[in-house]
Amino acid sequence: MFDIGFSELMVIGIVALIVIGPERLPRVARTLGHLLGRAQRYVNDVKSDISREVQLDELKRLQTQVTDSARELESSVRKEYETARSNIEAPAQEAVAELNSTAASLTETLPVAEPTGKPAA
């Protein structure tokens, strides 16, 4: 991020020692370390929040894709079912109609037995 080398850190340390003084330098360094730690934790928290949001968006996008695919599959299965049903129903209805007409023609040509009036035993 910042390209700071060892020699630059030495210069910063010497200037801080001269400006702040040897008595307060450890306390200032400790405070500075705590502040830098907090800043790093804050940056890491923000990064993880952004990462979670991106993952959540990807999951939502994936969910909509799966839902759309499921709807398309359902509609294609329904179309195939209706096609198969009509392909089976039409010949079956024709066969039933033919059987009914054959039965009607047979009942017209066959003599009807008259009841004899005797009770069945």
Question: Would you kindly provide a written description of the structure presented here, covering whatever features stand out?
Answer:
By secondary structure, this protein is an all-alpha fold. The chain has one domain. It has helices at 6-20, 25-109. It is rod-shaped. 0% of the residues are buried.
Structural class: mainly alpha
- What would you report as the Rg, rounded to the nearest angstrom? 46 Å
- Unreliable stretches, pLDDT < 50, 5 or more residues? none
The count of DSSP E runs of length 2 or more, i.e. the number of strands, is: 0
- Please, how many helices? 2
Main β-sheet, in a few words? none
Broad shape: rod-shaped
**Estimated helix fraction:** over 70%
Total number of domains: 1
Order of helices and strands: HH
pLDDT averaged residue by residue = 87
Separation, N- and C-terminal Cα atoms: 111 Å
Proportion of residues in extended strands: under 5%
Descriptive terms for the model:
121 residues, 2 helices
In brief:
The protein has 121 residues and is mostly helical. Helix content is 83%, strand content 0%. The protein has one domain (6-102).
